[in-house]
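Continuing the series of single-chain predictions for the mutant panel. This is the parent chain; the variants come on the following pages.
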Amino acid sequence: MSEAQKRTDPPTDPRDGFHSGPFPKQEQKKPGLTALMDPKPDHGELSYEGRGALRGKAALITGGDSGIGKAAAIAFAREGADVAISYLPEEEEDAQDTADWIRKAGQRALLLAGDGREEAFSTRIVADVVAEFGGLDVVVLNAAYQKNRESFESLPTEEFDRVLKTNLYSLIWTARAAVPHLKAGSSIITTASIQAFNPSPGLIDYAMTKAAQVAFTKALAQELGPKGIRVNAVAPGPIWTPLILATEWPDKLPTFGQDTPLQRAGQPAELAAAYVLLASDQGSYISGAVLPVTGGKGLQRSLHVRFTSTTGGTMSQDNQRTEPAEEVGGYGTPTAEQEMGGTDSKQYAQPRDEEDFDAAGLNQNSPDGETFDTGTPNLSHFDEEDKDSAGEPGAGRFGGTDDQHHAESDTNDPGFEPGEPLIPRDADVPSADAEINEANADAQGSEPFSSESGQEAAGLPDGSGADLPKDKSPKDDDEESFDAG
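Parent structure:
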């Protein structure tokens, strides 16, 4: 039987299989409940199949009563883990339903009701999990709060405080209490958001906390990695959860998720596999990572870069990097070869470490990595043409007297013949700009370097964007990004 004949199920089109149309306008009071949602979200209740990836482990999921937290709880239980969830007392109905699904998978469930804004509660839940399950292996920091803001000026201090306490303070308190109980092989997972990278003005305070969570994840991964503890984040895009209905933007629901490449919002069940990967040994070499589950929306903005090279050509590139692109090291530091005119002008040297510089800020390393004494420099690595007839450092780059400089410049001219008169000292010497324009005109058919507004003298953009066509100016064409929930 051929491989084609063995295949019984065709590939699933990611645009289908879940709700793909508009959502009806609706709104709930915070924190929002699953039973009141239309349509009901899919947490994987009838679809997720476990394979024992978390057998024998104990997990704590903050905000695990509904939405993404509920999907992770169901998946963890079906993978063999005992699961504890924390939630607000107002979410008791959702929490009980989640506990039922955990128990149906044959695992123990622990319900922890309370307000994460209280340090005592956020710390105590760790001790409760350890006491109930005999240990702790996976911590999912998922609890979150958001609200649509009409404007930054109207952001109340008490609301700002609530966002920070829920999204950052409680996260720090719970993680700090959990770390002493985690052993090698344990995992911490933060629920970040696409908002950390593409913030919406109406969620300015929420987006700030999500960006902070990304920094938290990357920093803690570096500290705990040597102990065998992995720290990662999941960055969801527009996911259909109760938090969306409690955000107070009913007019946006008909188009919720439609601006993604997959042209629909995601369901909580579609994130379960990401959490299982990061929690299990299947992700044993993943740490300090931010895993996007966004329906195809990138975690950075697209910038259109246009500049004029030193050889006269115009280069354009759609840059979607979160960090500036580097060419052989980057950072604008010329290599030794470039300084000597022997390499392509687009190459740059690697940045030097701070200890490579002396008190005066001078680089003590040669291009080959040799260290020179801070006294008399060793000039043996320079070519013979850099020395005068006596073998000493000559004029030009290495200094010298005016007479030496004039003589060296003339005698080094490839067209100089012995006996020719030297150029008079008072002769008109073209300026550097004039020489550049003349050379550029020869290379480009007499088309000089640009000196338009928005460009430096050499034709390079000064960063203002004034030299770009209107339809190519840097801008954000993305539609507003919704939160994950």
